[in-house]
Amino acid sequence: MRRAWTAEATWSETPPVGYADLKNAVVFRKVFGQHPRVLMGLLNDLLERSGDRAITELEYLPGEQVPLVLGLKLSILDVRCREKGGATFVVEMQVLHVTGFLNRVVYNACKAYVGALKKGAAYGDLVDVVAVSICDFVLWSDAERDTANAPRVPLVSRWSMAEQASGARSLGQVQYVFVELPKLGDRVPDTTNERWAALFAHAQDPEPRSIQDVLLTAAQREALELAREETFTAAERDAIERADEEVDQVRRTVAAANARTDAEAKAEQAAARVRELEALLGKKREGA
User: Fold this and answer.
1) How far from chain centre, in Å, is Cα 17?
2) Cα–Cα distance between 195 and 197 in angstroms, integer?
3) pLDDT higher than threshold 70 for residue 73
């Protein structure tokens, strides 16, 4: 079913044309790894950069590509870039919530921070790092936060160090941004960042005619144009399909492993209950 982003979709005689999934490795690489204007638009919106603080120029940096193998990184793609004379950004699309995910995000960000220092250089030459993780899963659920009587974490969250007693902020050399796509839900996106979340979560659902009246930024419009299915070559379409199959395979493997773990846990609980009953019966016999 096609998802309309407006209360009433505007229809025309234009033949239906679809978009590719921005979460796919090939699509993500094409849209954000080859077009700095789109990436700058995304970063400026997520980081709330505007005016003199806006990112206006980016240089792509070499990034490490890790295959989709269970137990490894399992991110679709890292896009590494550096703003002119400023911070380094590590932008990743993550589709599976694997064990140790947050630890890996921190590790990669810190690695990018210290890795930029050349041998013999002064510590003052280090530049800030911002790790941006777009996640197709929830990290901090509202239910868990409510149970813990803790503030809810929004769809787009930004994290940096703060002094515990006063809340004073400093030591911002390494910062983190998380976008939890499922937190958008089924509501019509109302803010710029909610529209980015909708593009990542549902770009493959709507047709151009159903979103032509949606208020998108220039970067968001360009991202959609770059993701038009008819713009991909046959080889690229094959690569898109293979990337989806790899993720599906890992997802099935994880699901099977979780099912085995659940079955083992239930079996252990049943065995523990049997041992308790046997011990109870033994005590009764002794007392008889």
Assistant:
1) 26
2) 5
3) no
Q: What is the DSSP string of 126-190?
A: ---EEEEEEESS-SS-HHHHHHTT-PPPPSEEEE--B-TTT--B--TTEEEEEEEGGGGTTSPP-
**Torsion angle of alpha carbons 223, 229, 231, 237, nearest 10°?**
120
Percent of the chain with pLDDT over 90: 39
For helices 218-226 and 192-202, give the axis angle rounded to 10 degrees: 10
What are the structure tokens assigned to 14, written together?
Answer: 């234009």
Q: Is 206 helix (H, G, I), strand (E, B) or coil?
A: coil
In the chain, domain spans: 25-231, 233-288
* Alpha carbons 125 and 86: distance in angstroms, whole number: 11
pLDDT at residue 256, as a whole number = 75
Could you give the count of Cα atoms lying within 13 Å of 68 in the half-sphere of its Cβ? 22
Is pLDDT at 11 greater than 70 in this prediction? no
Tokens of 79: 């896009």
Rounded CA-CA distance 219/196 in Å is: 10
Average pLDDT of the residues in 87-98: 88
Mean pLDDT to the nearest integer, 180-190: 91
Identify residue 1 by its one-letter amino acid code: M
How high is the pLDDT of residue 71?
Answer: 36
Choice among 85-99, 141-155, 247-261 with the minimum mean pLDDT: 247-261
Tell me how long the chain is. Answer: 288
Cα distance between residue 19 and residue 41, in whole Å: 19
